[in-house]
Amino acid sequence: MTTPLDGVRVVDFGQFIAAPAATQILVDLGADVIKVEPVDGESSRLIGIYGEAILRTYNRNKRCIALNLKDERGQRIAQELIAGADIVVQNLRPGVMDSFGLGADAVRAAHPHIIYATVSGFGQHGPSKYRAGLDIAAQAESGIMSVTGEADGEPQRVGFPVVDAASAHVFAQAILGAYIGRLRTGAGDTVETSLLEVAVHLQGPNWGEYLITSDEPVRKGNGQPAVAPAADVMPTLDGAIVVSAYSVVHFDRLCKLLGRPELASDPRFETNEKRVANRASLLTELRSEFAKMTSEEAMALLTPNGVVAGRISSYSEVRANLDVAAAGIFIDVTDPAGNRHTTLASPWHLGNVPEFPTTSAPGLGQHTVELLAGLGYSRSAIDDLTAAGIVRSPR
Fold first, then answer.
1. Is 348 a residue whose pLDDT tops 90?
2. Distance of alpha carbon 331 from alpha carbon 325, whole angstroms
3. Per-residue confidence (pLDDT) for residue 26, from 0 to 100
4. Does residue 229 have a cis peptide bond before it, meaning omega lies within 30 degrees of 0?
């Protein structure tokens, strides 16, 4: 059984999350991804356990070559790798790849069939194009932090690099679209996205409402500002759940299930607008009922009756969740030393991709010799490049 991207070669100059996570999707669709790193390793290798987590999660089954791109000999090797590729991906600071002679214009002039894809912090065309752009800056400048947190508290970031992760999916989607275009026309393309654009787009409903009303969204904690109860936390005897039941039918059903049918006709709560205006009083009434039961009891009461609810879970509880286990999102892989560990698979399923690759992220320069030999370099030439610090391979 062939995979969708069987035979497609990708040269990945990405670091950290947005670009490597996008090419991980391409790996899981069957592409051969060559990870190009500096001879001292990409930035994730230099920041401890967090960096190791990034490497493990977003670099499964890639082949790694370590090159000194500041030297003409390293640049020449990169050009040779690119010559055999279908897609080039990078997220280095704007101008860096151009300084190596590996920018979009140079690559596509030499190879018009190539898809050249760039993800940056703030885009390629505005005044901030040269700024360092990490997830947190995009969360701050896109408005995400302004609407996250309690009403009387300071702005909060989302508790994981949500913009990096979302940008990777958007990036991969655009790359695949460009590649489909090439299959139809034979012509390559350039692909660009940025963390800032994705961070703004993630807030579609908020922006839609703002563009209609010009009213600035504000932090309101967990509840959704225009509907109630919605995304509201209900503490239980042993934890908490989150509940959404703002339609007429579902709010009426929620009240009956809690043994409080009179709440549905209470003048304070009889319409959604009134429930939003009186959210504090509404939560007091609802929370007094949920406080009498465990989270499991609350879920057993609500979910079979069509009321949307979710148990607020720790990571260990998520790991034990039977639905998560059934989805197969956690997979065991083998690292270069032959050790096994668990990491994340891609969050989708294709009939033509029954299993994801189970080879872990490569070691720094693990495939340098293999890839150079494939380009026609002799063993003595590879040894000379290694001695000169142009390439690196495991000792």
1. yes
2. 10
3. 98
4. yes
303 vs 204: CA distance, rounded Å: 28
CB neighbours (10 Å) of residue 306?
11
Rg (CA), the chain: 25
Residue among 233, 213, 216, 235 at smallest CA distance from 224: 233
For residue 219, the Cα-to-chain-centroid distance in whole angstroms is 24
pLDDT value of residue 342: 97
The answer to whether the beta carbons of residues 316 and 272 sit under 8 Å apart is no
Sign of CA dihedral 273, 276, 244, 203: positive
Q: Taking Cα atoms as reference points, which of 75, 51, 102, 55 lies closest to residue 385?
A: 75
Q: Which amino acid is at 154?
A: E
Q: Taking 80 as the threshold, does the pLDDT of residue 1 lie above it?
A: no
Nearest to 121 by CA among 109, 110, 108, 134: 134
Ranges assigned E (strand) in 176-278: 189-194, 232-236, 239-244
Known active-site residue 71: no
What Cα–Cα distance (Å) separates residue 193 from each residue in 177, 184, 286? 13, 23, 44
Q: 337: which 2 tokens?
A: 């030393």
pLDDT digits (tens, 9 = 90+) for 10-30: 999 999 999 999 999 999 999
**Residue from 164, 189, 332, 335 carrying the catalytic annotation:** 164
What percent of the chain is predicted at pLDDT more than 90? 94
Cα separation of the two ends of the chain:
36
Q: pLDDT tens digit string along 117-128?
A: 999 999 999 999
Provide the pairing of β-strand 9-12 with 189-194: unpaired
> In whole angstroms, how far apart are CA 155 and each of 167, 214, 218, 273?
22, 21, 10, 26
pLDDT, residue 246, reads 96
Nearest to 243 by CA among 224, 264, 262: 224
- Give CA–CA dist 251/262, Å, rounded: 11
